[in-house]
Design a protein that fits this description.
By secondary structure, the chain is mainly beta. The chain is 7% helix and 57% strand. It contains seven helices and 47 strands.
């Protein structure tokens, strides 16, 4: 009995000792910039002979049992590694993103799956969260134009054109995404689509330059721009901000987010307005809000839900002609033209991790969009030249009010499987989208003051010009395979098949105004992409790819004539090579890409024998260029970025409206574009930032006949800001030298048209985070 008692006592002592030796360590890993939880971070106790570790879950949490753990190392791809002691508070372990662009994580190059920039065989650029916060941009172009080869044209009040490996254009050559999902449906492209974005809810922007139809489908020709939105933060956030400038712009933002147990919540939005700006009749207002509700069923299963709502209203001013531009005397003839946009998007995704090598996502998407216009570009004077003689009533003009609307329902299923011990991965999926749309236009008779030349009022007449509906169906399957046969080599191949079915219903009798007869059109296309990356070292690498992109005909290109033309999708072939090098670790890095993009079957307007015009596949174009970037930290506290592009865009075979442009340079295509920026963030005064940015757009032809040239422009922007605890203040001096120029200049048979740039303006703002007050009160 005595020996038995001793045995029990010894066993108890051993168990107690074992419990003391093994202690439980848990905590949460958070992104220091966005305050979002970091999933997939590695936490390791490095002091013991038998080291232990853990991987953070989707909430950024980890838990591990370690013996005599004195130091903990936390690391994650794309972040700087840190080492700390378990004695400190581990509930908030903040990781800083790496300064090296080669180690940045991108999502857009692999259908939302994270991959290192150095493993993506494509020209992709990132506007990260820090750049967005430092810039305090009021429009998207103030961010996107920092990227080499990108020139987003400001048309006023968040309206825009785009240029990425293409001339500045309104054509459907660019795909705009929100978290990897197109903002609008195929066949209904709108060059102003980015005014439907809520920029207050964006944490980063990724731009894939060149065709990416194999990943995202049609319209991704010059590039795909993916706006990645914020997710609920691991640290409570309630930030209010306000700003305004001296040319009539005012804005207020709100951002709130928190996590409670398995739930995550986020609300972000802003309200902006312009009154009495630097040009007559250019007022506007916009309200935008984004909400997210996420639920974590388990470490392996999560559900994310998000919605965005935009309500936009803007005056639609007329153009500025050469006389106004040269004399700097502006008067707007419009008094009632407008553009109103209502856009709603809902996106829900269920994510299931089967294990660390297998993942499935199922997404449903709903869009509802309406654009109502009384467009200035549809206003035509009754008194005008007819057959060489002026005739008509001088106090009468003609116009229209139109409304374009669509709803969209889609389902996207995707699965990723890692293979061969992580040396390969395979992504496959399918999507179905159904998008009914309508368009109607009503004639209006306009009253014109022949003395002031202003259009003063209008009356609706019982005359419907256009009234039709179109059902747009898109069915797609896609696959992406990546394989590393050697440690330094990565091979990537993508393939996508799309089928489009357009069903057109004309509710009026067919005519040149109302459109074509009822009909059904079907378009099919297979889009491939092949590429590789080869990293000689962790600091030097190259890549190359071949890719194709396509654009099915837009609804307005198919059905606006009396007859339905036989049109095939336009196809673009892209040949590209590039590389990157980190000359001095965390100090100096550079990248470059060389491309050739050939377009064929482009849709052009041709003159028929009877004198009318119709759309046809006939155009061919060629686009060549080199894009380059440099990032440097020459001394502590100072960072420098240079982004540039040299390109040439040429009509190869192009006959439009009876005019032949073969061999001409494409209009509105500057050969040189570059942007350089320097930031000073002194270590002796934490929170202060001072920046200067220089933007250059070179000269270009303003017409396809190459008869006139615009000299381009240079513009300097200055920025300063300061953060102190929960407060932040900033001032941006845009166009600091008060340069007088045009964002884009065009020439047509009606003369020159200028988009006047904003004069020097001072944008002053402040923000305050109230989260700590709420926590203290509770």
């Amino acid at each position: 009995m005595i020996n038995l008692s001793k045995g029990v006592i010894i066993a108890v002592v051993l168990i107690a000792t074992s419990v003391n030796l093994y202690s439980q360590v848990n905590g949460r890993v958070i992104d220091a910039s966005t305050k979002e939880p970091i999933a997939g971070a590695t936490v390791r106790c490095g002091d013991t002979l038998l080291s232990c570790g853990a991987i953070t879950n989707s909430a950024g949490d980890f838990e591990m049992k370690c013996r005599d753990c004195k130091n903990i190392t936390v690391s994650c791809v794309g972040y700087s590694q840190i080492t700390l002691t378990p004695k400190r508070d581990l509930n908030r372990i903040f990781l800083l993103r790496v300064s090296s662009t080669l180690d940045e994580i991108v999502l857009s190059a692999n259908r939302g799956e994270a991959v290192k920039r150095s493993q993506a065989p494509v020209a992709i650029a990132i506007i990260n969260h820090t750049t967005i916060q430092d810039s305090k941009a009021v429009t998207a172009d103030q961010l996107l134009n920092k990227i080499s080869g990108v020139n987003m044209v400001n048309l006023g009040n968040e309206q825009h054109e785009m240029s990425i490996r293409q001339p500045m254009t309104t054509k459907s050559l660019f795909l705009y995404l929100e978290d990897g999902v197109p903002i609008r449906t195929t066949g209904l492209f709108n060059h102003n689509a980015l005014l439907e974005m809520n920029m207050a809810g964006v944490k980063s922007i990724e731009v894939i330059k060149g065709p990416s139809s194999s990943l995202y489908g049609s319209e991704a020709i010059g590039g795909a721009v993916n706006f990645i939105t914020a997710v609920p933060t691991a640290v409570p956030l309630l930030k209010l901000s306000m700003q305004g400038n001296n040319i009539g712009y005012k804005r207020m933002d709100v951002n709130s987010s928190f996590v409670k147990g398995k739930w995550g919540f986020l609300v972000s939005g802003y309200y902006a307005k312009r009154r009495n700006g630097y040009l007559e009749y250019t007022d506007y207002n916009k309200g935008a809000i984004t909400g997210k509700v996420n639920y974590r069923f388990s470490d392996n299963t999560t559900l994310t839900n998000s919605f965005s709502w935009v309500d936009y209203n803007s005056d639609m001013a007329g153009g500025i002609d050469s006389i106004m531009f040269e004399s700097r005397s502006f008067s707007n003839p419009q008094t009632f033209t407008y553009r109103n946009v209502r856009a709603f998007r809902y996106h829900s995704t269920l994510t299931q991790f089967w294990n660390d090598k297998s993942k499935t996502t199922l997404s449903v998407l709903y869009r509802k969009n309406s654009i109502g216009q009384n467009p200035a570009y549809r206003v035509r004077d009754d008194y005008r030249q007819r057959d060489g003689v002026f005739a008509g009533q001088k106090d009468v003009a003609h116009g229209e009010i139109n409304v374009s609307s669509f709803r969209s329902y889609s389902v996207i299923a995707q699965h990723k499987q890692d293979l061969f011990a992580g040396k390969a991965s395979f992504i496959t999926g399918a999507s179905v989208e159904f998008s009914p749309s309508t368009y109607d236009a009503q004639y209006i008779r306009i009253k014109k003051d022949s003395v002031s030349n202003k259009y003063t009022s209008y009356e609706k007449r019982d005359s419907m010009l256009t009234n039709y509906g179109t059902n747009l169906n898109n069915y797609a399957v896609f696959a992406n395979f990546e394989y590393s046969p050697a440690a330094k080599l990565r091979l990537v191949g993508s393939l996508r098949f799309d089928m489009f079915r357009y069903r057109f219903n004309n509710f009026l009798d067919p005519s040149s105004f109302s459109g074509s007869p009822d009909t059904v059109n079907i378009f099919n296309r297979v889009s491939p992409k092949l590429g590789f990356t080869y990293n000689f070292t962790s600091r030097v690498g190259i890549y190359a790819n071949y890719s194709e992109g396509f654009i099915p005909p837009q609804v307005t290109e198919l059905y606006t004539g009396v007859k339905v033309p036989r049109i095939s999708p336009s196809v673009f072939s892209n040949y590209e090579a590039g590389g990157w090098v980190e000359v001095v670790k965390n100090r100096l890095s550079a990248d470059a890409s060389l491309y050739r993009l050939d377009g064929k079957n482009e849709i052009i307007s041709v003159r028929l024998d009877d004198g009318s015009f119709a759309n046809r596949n006939a155009g061919r174009t060629s686009h060549k260029g080199i894009e380059f970037g440099l990032n440097a930290t020459p001394v502590n506290d100072v960072s420098l970025r240079i982004s540039g592009a040299r390109s040439k865009h040429v009509f190869v075979e192009y006959l439009e409206r009876g005019l032949k442009f073969d061999g001409n340079e494409m209009n509105n295509a500057p050969r040189w574009i570059y942007n350089t920026e320097v930031w000073y963030k002194p270590s002796y005064l934490t929170g202060l930032r001072i920046g200067a940015e220089f933007q250059h757009v070179g000269k270009y032809y303003v017409d396809p006949q190459n008869t006139a040239v615009y000299s381009g422009y240079n513009v300097l922007n200055l920025r300063v800001g300061y953060i102190q605890k929960s407060w932040e203040v900033w001032m941006n001096v845009m166009n600091a030298t008060n340069r007088y120029y045009s964002y884009i200049t065009t020439k047509s048979s009606f003369g020159y048209s200028y988009q006047l740039a904003e004069p020097r303006n001072f944008n002053i703002g402040m923000s305050y985070d109230l989260a700590h007050l709420i926590k203290r009160a509770s």
